[in-house]
Amino acid sequence: MSRFEYAPAPESRAIVDIKSSYGLFVNGAFVEATDGKPFKTVSPASEEVLAEVSEAGPADVDKAVRAARRAYEKVWGPMAGRDRAKYLFRIARLIQERSRELAVLESLDNGKPIRESRDVDLPLVAAHFFYYAGWADKLEYAGAGPDPRPLGVAAQVIPWNFPLMMLAWKIAPALAAGNTVVLKPAETTPLTALAFAEICQQADLPPGVVNIITGAGRTGQALVEHEGVDKVAFTGSTAVGRSIARSVAGTDKKVTLELGGKAANIVFEDAPIDQTVEGIVNGIFFNQGHVCCAGSRLLVQESVYDEVLARLKRRMSTLRVGDPLDKNTDIGAINSAEQLARIRELSQVGEDEGAERWSPECELPAQGFWFPPTVFTGVSQAHRIAREEIFGPVLSVLTFRTPAEAVEKANNTPFGLSAGVWTDKGSRILWMANQLRAGVVWANTFNRFDPSSPFGGYKESGYGREGGRHGLEAYLAH
Amino acid sequence: MDSLADVTSSEDRLRRFLLGLPGVDQVGAEARAATLSTRSIKTTAKAYALDLAIQMIDLTTLEGQDTPGKVRALCAKARRPDPADPTAPQVAAVCVYPDLVATAKYELRGSGINVASVATAFPSGRSSLAIKVQDTKDAVAAGADEVDMVIDRGAFLSGRYGLVFDEIAAIRDAAGDAHLKVILETGELVTYDNVRRASWLAMLAGADFIKTSTGKVSPAATLPVTLVMLEAVRDYHEATGLHIGVKSAGGIRTAKDAIKYLVTVNETAGPDWLDPELFRFGASSLLNDLLMQRTKLATGHYPGPDYFTLD
Fold this sequence. Notes:
The complex is a heterodimer of chains A (478) and B (311).
Chain A (H helix, E strand, L loop, with lengths): L20 E2 L1 E3 L2 E3 L7 E4 L6 E5 L4 H19 L4 H17 L1 H12 L3 H22 L13 E2 L2 E5 L5 H14 L3 E5 L6 H12 L7 E3 L4 H9 L5 E5 L2 H11 L5 E5 L5 E4 L5 H13 L11 E5 L3 H12 L20 H16 L3 E3 L15 E4 L16 E7 L2 H9 L6 E5 L3 H10 L4 E4 L18 E2 L4 H6 L2 E2 L1
Helix pairs in contact in A: 2-4, 3-4, 4-5, 9-10
Chain B lengths: L3 H4 L3 H9 L6 H11 L6 H13 L1 E4 L7 H12 L13 E4 L4 H7 L6 E5 L10 H13 L4 E5 L2 H5 L3 H15 L3 E5 L2 H4 L2 H13 L4 E3 L11 H18 L4 E5 L5 H14 L10 E5 L2 H14 L12
Parallel strand pairs in B: 1-2, 1-8, 2-3, 3-4, 4-5, 5-6, 6-7, 7-8
Helix pairs in contact in B: 3-12, 4-13, 4-14, 7-9, 11-12, 12-13
C-alpha cells in the first residue's frame, strides 16, 4: 500500500436492539394505536427498513393528552422541585450510560455520522438534562417572578435533524419547570425518542409525565390543536411553524417556534484563515447541512476571496462521505428521499440561475440517499439559493467589500437564526454582533452549543428561546 | 507569491511579512487537532501506519551520560529494531550529540540509516554565532548527514527576526550538504502565531525540516503545534513548489499518538508528506510501543515488554 487508506472502522450495530414494531408510549406504557396505520422507518444510508411504527390518530392524541393532564394535576405539578430534579438527574445518567447505544441508533435512523452522534449529539443531550435538573428546585431564581408556576401540558413537535437532541431541548426544561409533555418525533426518525421512552420507564418516571406519540404531520396537527394543551413548542420548517401559529391564534396556548434559517458566515480579510476554513466546513457540512442554524451563506471579503475559496475546496476534498456507522465518516446520508429531492431541486435552480457549482470527487454509495458536499460560487442576493433554506450540504458563496456591506447582506433575509463572524479584531466582532439581526452570533467558531446558552431566532426564524434560563421561561407562567 | 525572495531582502520587510501572516485561532486549531485525533485507524491501515512510523523515527539519545557504548547499542537497535522479526523496518536516523557522531557513523555504515547531530549550543542555543558555526562544522566533519539546530528564541521573542534569520542562514552554509532541521522550541514560543511565524522564518532561511522541540523543554511536541507547522509547510509548498519536512520531537511515546500525527500529516499537508524524507518523529521509547503493536497486529496477542530490547 503506497497511500494511507483508512480501512473501514464500523461501529458495531450489535449494541442496539431494534424491535420489529413499536406502539405509542402513553401513560407510562407502550400501547397499540387505536386508529391510524403503522408506517415504516428506514435507514437513509441503505434504505433498509428498521422498524414499523404506529401512527397516532386523534383518539390516540386525546389519550396521550389526557394522561399528561392527569400526571400534571396529580403527580408532577404538585411534586417538590427537588424531587423532580431527582428524576431528571436519573434520566441524564441513564442517557450517559446508554450513550453508545443511543448514538448508534441515532446514526442508523437519521443517517448522521457516528462521530457526530457520539461526540456532539449524545454529550449535549445528557448535558441538557443535567443542566435543567439543576434548575428544578431553583425556579424562583430563574427571573420569572417570585413564585413561577408551570403551564400544564406541553405539546412538543420536533424535527428529524437532531432527533434526540431536540427531544432533550424540549423535554428537559418542560419537566424541570413542572409541566408534563406529549412529544411527537419526526416520522423519519422516531427510534431514539422511543428508546427515550424506555429510559423514562427505567428511571421510574411517573406514568403520563412523558408521552411519546409517533406519526406524521397530521398527528402533529392533532396534537397542537388539542384543547387540553397549554403550551405548544415546535422546531421545524417555517411553513409548518406558520400554520401552527395560525391554529393556536385565539386560544390561550403559549407558543415557542424554532424555525428555519439562512445564516451568514462572514469572513473578513484578517480572519485566522485555516480555522476559518474549518469553521466554514463545520458550519455547512456538519450533520449534512441539516441544521437550521447552518452557515449556508458564506460572505467573504473580496480581498481574500480567492484564497479562502482555494483553501475551502482543498479542505472539502478531504471530507469522507459514506457509511454513517464508520467512525471515519465526516458526512453521512441525507435523511430522506424527500429531502434529497429538495436539495437536488434547489441545486438545479442554483445552476439554472447562473451560479457555478463545484463538488470534490467523491464516490457515493449506490443504495440510500446521498448528496456530495457542494459549493456554489458567483451567487448573488437575488439567487434563490441565497434566500431559501436548502437544508443540505450546499454552500452559497457571496462577497462583500466593507463591514457595513457585510451587515447589510447578512441581514437581508427573512430569517435570523444565527450568524458567524471571522476576524482577529475583537472590536469588529462586538460591532458586528450588535448589527446582526440573528439570535446567535458566533465569533471565530460555528455550530457551538451549550445547555446554558439560549438559542432562538429573529424574524421568520421563530420566537421564544430554548436553552439556558431563557429556555425555562418558555415553560413558566408568571 | 513571487515576492518571497523580496521579503528576506531587509529585516524590515521580513518583519512585516511575518507579522502579516494570517493569525492562528487557538481554540480552532486545538479543536481541529482533537477532531483529527478521533480517526479510527484499524487493520490494514494500522499496519501501514505502524511500519511507516517506525521508518520515520530519529532514534535519539541526548544525555550528558551518553557514551560510545550507549550509542553503539542504539545503532544496533536502529539497524534491527525487532530482533525477533526481521520484517520490521529500520528507523530513519540516529540522533546524537556532535562528539558521538563518529561512533554512530561507524556503527551505521552500510545500513542506509542517517546520522543526525544536534548542534548550535543545543538545547538553549545561548552562545556566539562563531561557536554555533564551529559546532555545526564539527558535526558535519565527523560525518553527520543531518544537523538539528536550535533557533535563538530570545532573539525571536524580542522581535529580532533578522538575527534569527541570519543565524539559520549561517548554519545552513556551515552544514553544507547535510540536511538542516531547524528546531523552533515551540514550548518556549508558546503561541501558535509565533509557531507559524517561526516556521516561515526557518523555511525562508533555508531549513530542510522544521522541528518542534529539543525534548528538553515541556511541553515538547503537541498535535496542534504540529498541525500549525504542517499548515506552514503546505502553504510554503503552494507558494514555492518546495517540500519542507516536519519533525515532531519529544513526548510522543505511544503508537496510538504516532498514528494521530500521521493522520494529521495525511489530512493537513497531504499524502506527499507521508514519507521519512518529509516527516520524522524524534523519539526513543516510541519505537518499542510501535514494535509491540506491530507484533500484536500480526499475531493477535501482546508479547510482554521484556520481548523488546531496551536499546
